[in-house]
């Protein structure tokens, strides 16, 4: 938020404490136990010997151990023992212990040396040291204290704390040739998480010569409490399977257990099977980051797989048949510690899914065979049906809105010259449609209308992206007049509203104006979202809660309503379920929706936003109920009670989006390759060629 009168910017963040929870892939171990177990692994075991034969896995494993060592030693290396009977334990001693001296004299020399056995002994002894001084007990006490604090029902308010945020000079590039070639004075880690190490926060007021710049900030912690009303809404959901034809697909390594699964479940069914020799890939292709074969294999596999499927599926398209293709991936390693060839297979499956969902219904889901139980298997198979149309039926509510389209848009850079600002970006999106069934008063049909992608230069993508305008026009001609338009840059978590059009990304006045050309009765609602976490203080059985009292939410964004307000929270959805061990879960997720006000210089457009999102109208009630149904439609676990999906946009926006997963290293390791943008261009060429042939 910007307060122009006081020349101040204010940022609101939701805080979530890390409470040493259980790691899903480690059979009940806490995070501390799981991480410290890396220090005492048998490095001579057959499994780890194979791991060390692969340079990629070896480097990843070593980095993991060193991160655990550095972080945990500096946090937990205090010699204070809460169970020491001879010395009375003083918790304040944890704050005065300085681990740097011991680290420099006892740890660092061994790590710098060539004695591998000494390093193994060091790792084991550090883990034993944590056990000797009862670190687990300290963590449990701290965890209990924090949980008791956040679960207090009494409101608390703290005084603001003045701090200094500084950026060190280490962020500057030192190589003059690189500066000249790239036209950048900052090093190449600026856009990555590694860049956070150059940022420091402290309470000092002096000037440090190592600082590049510093900024004084004021931090204040507040809590916001919500109270439940008696209003309740119930609905049912069923899959709309009428007329849907299915072709299952299996992506699997050539391995004994995988073959058995295929024989048991799919051998007598018509399906597509794509298998790969994972041992050969690990030994010959995915064995080193600088192996050029890795890029060429990924490119060839992606291109041939996409073209083969496209040839098969285009025949169905000619017959006006929209197929459902559930792709099941079998994995030998879990997601958190995946082997490099399986990382690629997972990433590519999402790229393939996005491309083929343009016309067909394509979904992808992986199953790790290491810890395969009934519930994981059932939930994984259930998630494959997320793209199937669904019909929702309300018990006590009849909507008046006939049709609503939800359009989600994002982008990812795919080409850039280092010497200037010219870029090409891959624009991606998805369209969800909700139709009020005419034959019944309270039923809504929700379906995925399709995905889209196209490459643009930076000027065109933010002014006139024709793939988006064509999609809106297509839907408009089918009777849709109300559009929820959700757009967010994947590179930033918070939109800084300054009034400059270029900072609004796909919500700029230019794009909104273009989308409305020739459509006098269209209503477009620009919104963006973020997630935060809350503590559930009561035993609420409801699957979800929603907050849409604008007068109450206005205080969330600003303490006072003023003319400079540019954004407003209008809707929150609370996930009421607590998965896993309920005693180990302290938080529930909330997704918060915000719209933009007073920036479009269009009175009619502002009226549209107020009528559909802000004011207490029947239209707003319908729109928010339809948006809630979209969240429920994406829930992936098989259960008798459906619950909302907190983030139904993760396939398009975020660190695990298809745009992020499509990025890999080129054979020239200084270049990142965007496989989705590449295959988008391949598809464009094929369409252009097909159109020319049809015209001839």
Question: Summed up, what is this model?
Answer:
Keywords: Membrane, Transmembrane, Transmembrane helix. With 696 residues, the protein is of the alpha/beta class. The protein has four domains: 25-137, no CATH class; 159-219, no CATH class; 241-384, Rossmann fold (3-Layer(aba) Sandwich), CATH 3.40.50; 390-661, no CATH class.
- Average residue pLDDT: 82
- Determine the structural class based on helices, strands and strand pairing: alpha/beta
Total DSSP helices: 21
Contiguous runs where pLDDT drops below 50 for at least 5 residues: 489-503, 549-565
Q: Structurally, how many domains make up the residues?
A: 4
Work out the helicity level: 25-40%
Strand order in the largest sheet: 6-12-15-14-13-16-17-20-19-18
Structural notes for this entry:
By secondary structure, the chain is an alpha/beta fold. The chain has 4 domains: 113 residues, no CATH class; 61 residues, no CATH class; 144 residues, Rossmann fold (3-Layer(aba) Sandwich); 272 residues, no CATH class. Helix content is 36%, strand content 22%. Strand 14 and strand 15 form a beta hairpin. The chain is globular and about 80 Å long. The chain starts with a strand and ends with a helix.
Q: What's the arrangement of secondary structure elements?
A:
Layout: E1 2-3, E2 8-9, H1 31-36, H2 46-53, H3 55-76, H4 93-96, H5 100-112, H6 116-132, H7 135-150, E3 161-168, H8 176-182, E4 199-202, E5 211-219, E6 235-239, E7 245-246, E8 249-253, H9 256-265, E9 272-276, H10 278-285, H11 292-318, E10 323-331, H12 340-356, E11 361-368, H13 374-383, E12 390-394, E13 403-416, E14 423-436, E15 443-457, H14 458-461, H15 466-477, E16 482-487, H16 509-516, E17 523-534, E18 544-547, H17 550-557, E19 567-575, E20 588-596, H18 603-614, H19 618-633, H20 658-661, E21 663-665, E22 672-674, H21 675-695
Parallel strand pairs: 7-10, 8-9, 8-10, 10-11, 13-16, 16-17
Antiparallel strand pairs: 1-2, 3-4, 3-5, 6-12, 12-15, 13-14, 14-15, 17-20, 18-19, 19-20, 21-22
Helix pairs in contact: 11-12, 12-21, 18-19
């Amino acid at each position: 938020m910007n307060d122009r009168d006081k020349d101040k910017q204010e940022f609101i963040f939701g805080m979530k404490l890390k409470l040493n929870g259980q790691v899903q892939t480690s059979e009940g171990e806490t995070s501390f136990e799981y991480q410290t177990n890396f220090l005492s692994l048998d490095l001579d075991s057959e499994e780890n010997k194979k791991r060390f034969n692969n340079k990629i896995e070896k480097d990843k494993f070593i980095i993991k151990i060193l991160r655990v060592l550095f972080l945990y030693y500096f946090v937990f290396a205090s010699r204070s023992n809460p169970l020491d009977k001879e010395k009375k334990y003083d918790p304040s001693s944890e704050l005065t212990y300085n681990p740097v001296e011991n680290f420099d004299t006892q740890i660092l020399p061994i790590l710098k040396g060539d004695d591998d056995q000494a390093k193994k002994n060091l790792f084991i002894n550090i883990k034993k040291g944590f056990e000797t001084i009862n670190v687990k007990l300290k963590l449990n006490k701290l965890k209990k204290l924090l949980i008791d604090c956040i679960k207090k029902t009494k409101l608390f308010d703290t005084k603001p704390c003045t701090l200094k945020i500084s950026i060190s000079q280490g962020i500057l590039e030192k190589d003059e040739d690189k500066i000249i070639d790239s036209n950048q004075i900052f090093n190449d880690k600026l856009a990555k998480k590694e860049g956070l190490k150059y940022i420091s926060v402290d309470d000092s007021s002096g000037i440090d010569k190592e600082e590049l710049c510093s900024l004084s900030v004021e931090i204040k912690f507040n809590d916001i409490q919500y109270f439940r009303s008696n209003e309740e809404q119930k609905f049912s959901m069923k899959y709309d399977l009428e007329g849907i034809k299915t072709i299952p697909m299996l992506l699997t390594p050539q391995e004994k257990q995988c073959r058995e699964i295929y024989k048991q479940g799919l051998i007598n069914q018509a399906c597509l099977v794509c298998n790969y020799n994972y041992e050969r890939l690990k030994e010959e292709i995915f064995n080193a980051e600088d192996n050029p074969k890795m890029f060429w294999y990924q490119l060839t596999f992606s291109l041939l797989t996409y073209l083969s499927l496209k040839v098969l599926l285009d025949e169905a398209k000619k017959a006006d048949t929209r197929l459902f293709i559930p792709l099941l991936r079998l994995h030998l390693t879990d997601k958190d510690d995946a082997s490099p060839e399986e990382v690629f297979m997972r990433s590519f499956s999402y790229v393939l899914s996005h491309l083929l969902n343009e016309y067909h219904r394509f979904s992808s889901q992986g199953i790790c065979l290491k810890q395969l139980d009934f519930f994981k298997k059932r939930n994984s198979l259930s998630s494959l049906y997320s793209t199937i149309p669904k019909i929702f039926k309300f018990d006590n509510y009849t909507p008046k809105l006939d049709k609503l389209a939800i359009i989600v848009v994002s982008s990812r850079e795919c080409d850039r010259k280092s010497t200037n600002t010219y870029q090409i970006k891959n624009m991606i999106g998805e369209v969800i449609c909700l139709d009020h069934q005419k034959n019944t008063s309270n039923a809504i049909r929700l379906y995925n209308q399709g995905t889209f992608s196209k490459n643009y230069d930076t000027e065109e993508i933010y002014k006139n992206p024709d793939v988006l305008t064509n999609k809106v026009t297509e839907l408009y001609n089918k009777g849709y007049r109300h559009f929820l338009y959700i757009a967010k840059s994947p590179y930033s978590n918070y939109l800084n509203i300054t009034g400059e059009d270029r900072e609004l990304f796909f919500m700029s006045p230019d794009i909104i104006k273009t989308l409305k050309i020739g459509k006098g009765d269209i209503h477009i609602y620009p919104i963006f979202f973020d997630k935060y976490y809350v503590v559930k203080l009561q035993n609420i059985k409801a699957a979800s809660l929603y907050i849409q009292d604008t007068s109450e939410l206005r205080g969330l964004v600003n303490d006072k309503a003023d003319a400079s307000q540019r954004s407003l929270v209008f809707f929150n959805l609370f996930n009421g379920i607590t998965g896993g061990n309920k005693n180990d879960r302290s938080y529930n997720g909330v997704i918060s929706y915000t719209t933009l006000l007073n920036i479009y210089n269009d009175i009619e457009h502002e009226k549209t936003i107020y009528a559909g999102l802000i004011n207490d109208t029947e239209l707003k009630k319908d729109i928010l109920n339809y948006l809630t149904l979209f969240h429920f439609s994406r829930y992936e676990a098989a259960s008798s009670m459906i619950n909302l999906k907190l983030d139904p946009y993760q396939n398009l926006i975020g660190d695990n989006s298809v745009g992020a997963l499509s990025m890999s290293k080129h054979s020239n390791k200084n270049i990142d390759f965007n496989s989705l943008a590449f295959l988008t261009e391949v598809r464009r060429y094929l369409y252009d060629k097909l159109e020319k042939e049809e015209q001839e």
